[in-house]
# Entry
Amino acid sequence: MKTLPQVNAHPEDHCEVCGLSKVVVTIGRSMRVVAASPVMQRLLKRAALFADADAPVVIFGESGTGKEVIARALHANSPRRAAAFVAVNVAALPADLLESELFGHARGAFTGATDEKRGLMEAAGGGTLFLDEIGEMPLPLQAKLLRALQDGEIRRVGDTRAFAVDVRFVCATHRDLGDLVARGQFREDLYYRLKVLTLTVPPLRERREDIAPLAETLLAAEKQQGARFSAAALQSLASYDWPGNVRELSNVIKHGVALARGGEIRPEHLPDELGAKRPGQTPSRPRGAPELKTLAAAERDHVLAVLEACGGSQVDAARVLGIGRNTLWRKLGAYRLDASAATLGGAPGSALSARTRRG
Ligand SMILES: Nc1ncnc2c1ncn2[C@@H]1O[C@H](COP(=O)(O)OP(=O)(O)OP(=O)(O)O)[C@@H](O)[C@H]1O
Ligand SMILES: [Mg+2]
# Structure
């Protein structure tokens, strides 16, 4: 098997089994790619095999999973590593601006184009052009990109002359490109032209082994002396579902560092959505799981839901609930008492305040 060329990797970080570094390349000066889970190790092995090829690569994955990190690792391990890695967020620019940014423009091409300008494709010459959020590329530009891919040539906006560019294309998207093709929002020919080599970065919740090492790496990057996680904080991080993936983890760590003020990061320093267990609080629950509530609260919510579904008729609601009308009436009275006690500081529940009929 081909081994991944190392860029600033630490020999002690090599996996004894696959020979691949757990920490593959340095991203910037202080950040390293973390891949402790088998699924990420497999992904990096695949990326290592793709690094030498010059064919386009598409990196799929939810937002914040580390698609750009993988793109940078790919470039850093490719024969193009000495040349530029140019990242362009396709979704961030309006179509006209994106076209002139990517392809450049001739002098006088449009109002304000007082000079000719090199595009980012030229700037990436000999290196890698990373097109992030490729699924958002406007259709007319997709046609122009296809020509660049097919012929290796581009034309600046407002220029008739074409010239060759030597760029490796790496694209990323959180969208299902096949679905965009089916809906006519992405060119089928471009799809097949780009989708030569593909990598899929799994969401963080599917590679929980990466959470702790990522958290430690991201904490170290904060350069806050003495900052460390308590065992309970690490537990909270490990059991959360991370809908925003590594980017969310990075933000949570910044939050923790700010609140812990250089001391130990404990669950109370983490954002509420992590559901960290605090004294007197209900335990955290996985995303999508039902809200954890007391039996009395569950009964109250169910009774009120049935009442609402019965258009406020207590007779119908009692029949559906399988209880006597008087029992229902007593329960509603008790809920009203609870609600008015609670509303000394807030609004009562909507179903409770809805008119109910004893009929
Ligand atoms: N394996 C990793 N090792 C170290 N840092 C990582 C890793 N994966 C992601 N990160 C960090 O998480 C953040 C998000 O990563 P990145 O920008 O590559 O994600 P993305 O998938 O491109 O996100 P988006 O879809 O929002 O563009 C970055 O700060 C990055 O440095
Ligand atoms: Mg990105």
